[in-house]
Amino acid sequence: MKTDSRFFKTLRYLCVVGVIALGLITIVGTGGGGGDSTTSNGDSGGDVTGKAEWTYMVYITGDNNLSSAAMGDINEMEQVGSSSDVNIVVQVEFSRQYSPDIDMSYNTLRGKIERDYDQENINSELEDIGNKDMGNKATLTEFIKWVATNYPANHYALVLWDHGAGWKVSRSTGGVIRGALHDATSGNFMSLPDLASAVSNSGIHMDLINFDACLMAMYEIAYEFNGLTDYMVFSEEVEPGEGDPYDTILQELVNNPGMTAKNLAKTITSKFKAFYQWQSRTYVTKSAVDMAKTAELHDKIGDLADLMIENMGSERPNIQLARDDSIAYYYPENHDLGDFLTRLYSASSNSDIRSKIIEIKNILFHPLSPMVISNEIYSPYQSDITGSKGLAIFLPKRDQVTSADLGTYTDLAININQSKAVAANSWGNFVNFLVEGDTTAGNLLQPADGNFVILLKWDTDADLDLIIWEADGSWAAPYLGTNSANGFLSEDSADSGESVEYYAAAETVQKGRYDIFVNYYKNGSTNDYANAELWFLDPVNGINVFTLLGDGTRYMDLSNTAPADWIDDEDERDNVWNDEYSDWWWWYNPDYLTRSLKREVALNSSNETITMGNIRIHFVSLPSKEKVKRLPYMDEDTVEIIKQRTQEHWKY
Q: Which H/E stretch holds residue 583?
């Protein structure tokens, strides 16, 4: 295949959107950003033993696919630079794979950020301190101690910068490890307890901790850091790859170094929203909480957990309804706590449960002294996410979690009492109780190796749709969105303008069968046909380069279309599976696309059970494209996943 193919044109376009131009990093000296230097702002840095008002320390684990974003964020910091009242100090690693032009990219750099106007190169004096394991909690502890010794201040802010996965130890999505603070060279990452332990072991109390990472705004995260910081800033949903806008945030701090931690937290959230709203980007959330309320919230949530367990016999339908209807995020088992409480209050008639909900909401949202002090949300289109209240909680269905997930969850601080034993009145105890008797879901999620990629390409401007029937019985298609329960998808070709769509399975997927459907949806502006091809990559099964599926090219058009309601008719389903219609193409090969011996899915009374060969399955109706109002978007992580999984293996 030639490099100017339609596919690679699309890929190149996607991979440069929102990515800051890279240049060569300049290591100016080896002094570690000495504290007695004069900054480019014209302010004297003072002696290293003197105290600034603020030290803003940023721990950047960029030795992964976010390397270019790390480069961009440091350049944003340099647009402001340190002053006599504000020290901006970083420790950073880059990736040689993703930033090949950066010198010494396997080593760790550390030092004070100085002001300059070069947006392509880092000109601050960053010392090479060797190849540190940025995924080891001891490295984070040492960084905090070093900063406090060399750049003492009246107030400390710590930014933890990387991919994020909430409380989970590790989540792999399309080959990109979503663990907190991941070091690709060492392969290590920090668990939530590791993160809190690293801060605690430093002996430095933080005025503010800011997670510039995805999915960290959770009750579980806040309580893990109870007593370690006064305020915390984080996001309930995934963050775009650029993360925080450091130039606007730090400019506010440098202009007003007397700013309180509370006001700094609000500044971070407001500048974050403003940046992405100005870009008209995908939806974002960023919230801030007063950590002084954390212990009280924890006690009340424990009380609510006890009440729900005690009354589970009568309240289970209400709890499950409130869970299922409440706002969920990229990890569908993460639900907005405030929204869940509101819905449970409406669904339940239990006076004790309703009273406890009022107490919890009063802690979270008290008009005079709320725990959630800031909750900034932006979405360019109609979205449930705009109802987010600022703090999420783990509230899974049975088929959304593994037994390992539940075991890991038990180890979190929210579930441990003062004697270090598992507390009876913990949210984890309630989750286990809820999951065991869940009447709306099937068996515990059984993971299997994923990492396969399905690519559809065709030769005209007709509108074709790649549709994957996933192992849990749900549908995934670009026109439905770029994330699914088991993988990632490209933009819909109708939006991208390119005749290519693809699906990249997560590194770990639900066990079962993955069927491929192609629908010739609409003629193009100049063509009323298409020659379609399906290509497949599956390193788990030894398919290390893209391989053409089936007999090659499939001719498709609208000359003999399937009925619109073919899913509802058993005979018509057979016709589609037998490829008797010109607008539908079904493809499945058990050697490639079975991740277990049978399709393991939950049976639900609202879904029809059918037989396909020797496999008894349920069939969920496929959403009609013309009725889907959600606007698909392509986020940076998805771009990196597709780039990683295709460019390394495609031979041309």
A: none
Residue 133: exposure state from Cβ atoms within 10 A (0-12, 13-18, ≥19)? middle
In whole angstroms, what is the distance from residue 632 CA to residue 517 CA? 19
The chain-wide mean pLDDT, for the chain, equals: 79
DSSP type of residue 594: B
User: Do 179 and 190 touch, CB atoms closer than 8 A?
Assistant: yes
75 token code pair: 């350049």
Instruction: Give the per-residue pLDDT at 445.
Output: 66
Say if pTM beats, i.e. exceeds, 0.90: no
Q: What is the C-alpha to C-alpha distance for residues 410 and 419, in angstroms, rounded to an integer?
A: 15
**Cα(7)–Cα(163) distance, rounded to whole angstroms?**
27
Tokens of 559: 């000359």
Is the pLDDT score of 288 beyond 90?
A: yes
Give me the helix-helix angle, 312-325 and 294-310, nearest 10°.
Answer: 130
Residues with Cβ within 8 Å of residue 626, at least 6 apart in sequence: none
Return the bridge partners of 393, or none.
335
Q: What is the dihedral of CA 425, 426, 427, 431, to 10 degrees?
A: -80
Q: Could you tell me which residues are beta bridge partners of residue 176?
A: 173
- Average of per-residue pLDDT across 281-291: 89
Domains and CATH numbers, the chain: 6-33+52-281 (3.40.50.11970), 296-369+390-436 (no CATH), 447-647 (no CATH)
Give tens-digit pLDDT for 604-620: 333 333 333 333 333 45
10 Å CB burial of residue 539 (0-12, 13-18, 19+) is middle
Enter the tokens of residue 280. Answer: 């008209």
Kindly state the percentage of the chain with pLDDT values over 70.
Answer: 77
What pLDDT shows up at residue 599? 29
Between CA 553 and CA 560, with CA 555 as vertex, the angle to 5 degrees is 150
| pLDDT tens figures, 35-70 | 333 333 333 333 344 699 999 999 998 887 777 888
Task: Tell which wins on pLDDT, 167 or 169.
Answer: 167
Number of H helices, E strands in the chain: 17, 29
Tokens of 193: 């307890």
- Rounded to the nearest 10°, the torsion over CA 100, 640, 111, 254 is 130
Q: Are 406 and 431 in contact (CB under 8 A)?
A: yes
Residue environment code for 611-630, b if the CB has 16+ CB neighbours within 10 A, otherwise e: eeeeeebbbbebeebeeeee
DSSP of 506-529, one letter per residue?
A: -SEEESSB-EEEEEEEE--SS-S-
Tell me the backbone φ, ψ of residue 545, rounded to 5 degrees. -130, 155
State how far the Cα of 253 lies from the Cα of 154, in Å rounded to an integer.
14
Q: Is the pLDDT of residue 442 over 50?
A: yes
Closest C-alpha to 254, from 43, 25, 438: 43
**Of 85 and 120, the one with more pLDDT:** 85
* pLDDT tops 50 at residue 90: yes
Could you give the angle at which helices 337-347 and 351-365 cross, rounded to 10 degrees? 150
Residue 279 confidence (pLDDT): 75
How long a stretch of residues is the chain?
A: 652
pLDDT tens, position by position, 467-477? 998 876 778 89
Q: Where are the alpha helices (DSSP H) in 569-633?
A: 570-577, 590-593
